[in-house]
Design brief:
449 residues, mainly beta, four-stranded antiparallel β-sheet, Carotenoid 9 10(9 10)-cleavage dioxygenase 1 isoform X1, iron
């Protein structure tokens, strides 16, 4: 979680004369201010400052501050995004780093012309219709959470507001619809006072309250319509949209948090703690099933928020057979009603086998799951959806993902036709080096020049 960010880029270009394709691969570290400090010393220098007990974290803060003037590293290791023709890498604890998409050189901090001076969500969202970028930032001190709207040209922060939360919820992602921003205030929190008093810096409180806020795009704290929901930990939103008088939120919901890490005292399943042990849905009424089983696995979930009554309907979209996270959709449908979501699926038994899964909404009552299975001991990360140029339907496109085979130690890129999702990939591209497992990927069209 505190590792350096490294970008891995694959460039596809088509020769218009004969229709042939060429592929080029590049990688490079994101050179944040703290990366450069360690590079000058030619060794890791910052002490880890997220995990561990209270004395260890406080000591790391103090020593990092005394040595470098900063309490922790700026990671920039989670996601990449584009806005107004510029490209950025990002992690929750710092503002984005602008990247030269061809050389992968780090060009410096992006603070929106000096108007944004706090951490920045890893998943900003483009507002449907306007091209504006909706952003969010959390901090361990007040204001705990702020949202903002960046102009379509990326030059101006046209709206910024303190949401006036009374805790710092670790909100990894926000949602957008045509008119609203969607805020998740769930009981995974960052608390400096708790740390100073001997408790953990990051804690999930399964007894705490959970709510989803729906606010007008340019609203303030008083304009937020809060909906109380069942306590949960949700990092990623599949999509959110308006459906009549309801705001619908699809996400990947778990009942516990993998951050800051599992409680190894619960280890009763080989090397795995019980929260990583799969709960068998067919035995839900069996008294031998621990309440802890499978809590760290997330599942596709739906919240339907009735704007005129304040009522909420919740349900699992695909049951609990598949553990799903790191979702993606056809970006054209971000914030508007869609049918298809694509996720990485964890094989609960192995706790590692992954494959993309196509979650298709056919009608209000029937959900279908289609899977693309990888070879044994092959696992994926950093998947992205690539829409087909001139495509007429939502699923006209490809899922592209880095895949590594643990037996052969070969890394490849798979290109999967999303209209024939269970079929063999249309292409497998062998890479010249190992690509480590990472977080998020993105498809970004660029000029051939």
């Amino acid at each position: 979680m505190e590792g350096e960010g490294m970008l891995h880029a694959l460039y596809f270009s088509k020769d218009v004369s004969d229709g042939s394709w060429s592929v080029r691969y590049n990688n490079r570290h994101v050179e944040t201010e703290t990366f450069k400090l360690e590079k000058q010393r030619n060794k890791p220098s910052f002490l880890p400052a997220i995990g561990g007990d209270s004395p260890a974290i406080l000591s790391a803060y103090l020593l990092n501050l005394l040595r470098f003037g900063k309490v922790n590293k700026y990671l920039s290791n989670t996601n990449v995004f584009e806005h107004s023709g510029k490209f950025y890498s990002i992690a929750e604890n710092r503002i984005p780093q602008e990247i030269d998409i061809i050389t992968l050189e780090t060009l410096g901090n992006w603070d929106v012309s000096g108007a944004w001076n706090r951490p920045f969500t890893s998943h900003p969202k483009r507002a449907p219709g306007t091209g504006e970028l909706v952003i969010l930032g959390i901090d361990a001190v007040k204001p705990f959470m702020e949202t903002g709207v960046v102009s379509a040209d990326g030059k101006e922060l046209i709206h910024k507001v303190d949401l006036k939360l009374d805790r710092c919820s670790l909100c990894h992602e926000l949602g957008v619809t045509q008119r609203y921003n969607v805020i998740m205030d769930f009981p995974l929190t960052l608390d400096i006072n708790r740390l100073v008093n001997g408790g953990p810096l990051v804690k999930y409180n399964q007894e705490g309250y959970a709510r989803i806020g729906v606010m007008p795009r340019y609203g303030d704290a008083n304009s937020i319509h809060w909906f109380k929901v069942e306590p949960n930990c949700t990092f990623h939103i599949i999509n959110s949209f308006e459906d009549g008088d309801e705001v619908v939120v699809w996400g990947c919901k778990a009942l516990d948090s993998v951050i800051p890490g599992p409680d190894m005292s619960l280890n009763q399943f080989g090397w795995l703690p019980r929260r990583f042990k799969p709960a068998d849905p067919s035995k839900e009424n069996n008294n031998d099933i621990s309440a802890e089983d499978g809590k760290l696995f997330s599942h596709a979930y739906e919240w339907r928020l009735k704007m005129n009554t304040g009522k909420v309907r919740e349900r699992y979209l695909t049951g609990k057979e598949f553990s799903m996270d790191f979702p993606m959709i056809n970006g054209v449908f971000s914030g508007v009603k869609n049918r298809y979501g694509y996720t990485q699926v964890v094989d609960s038994i192995a706790s590692s086998t992954s494959e993309p899964a196509d979650v298709s909404l056919r009608n209000e009552s029937q959900l279908e799951v289609e899977t693309h299975m990888f070879e044994e001991k092959s696992f994926c990360s950093g998947a992205a959806f690539v829409p087909k140029q001139g495509g007429l339907e939502e699923d006209d496109g490809w899922a592209i993902t880095f895949v590594h085979n643990e037996d052969t130690n070969v890394s490849q890129v798979y290109v999967i036709d999303t209209k024939k999702f269970s079929n063999e990939p249309v292409a497998k591209i062998t890479l010249p080096c190992r690509v480590p497992y990472g977080f998020h990927g993105a498809f970004i069209p660029i000029s051939s020049q």
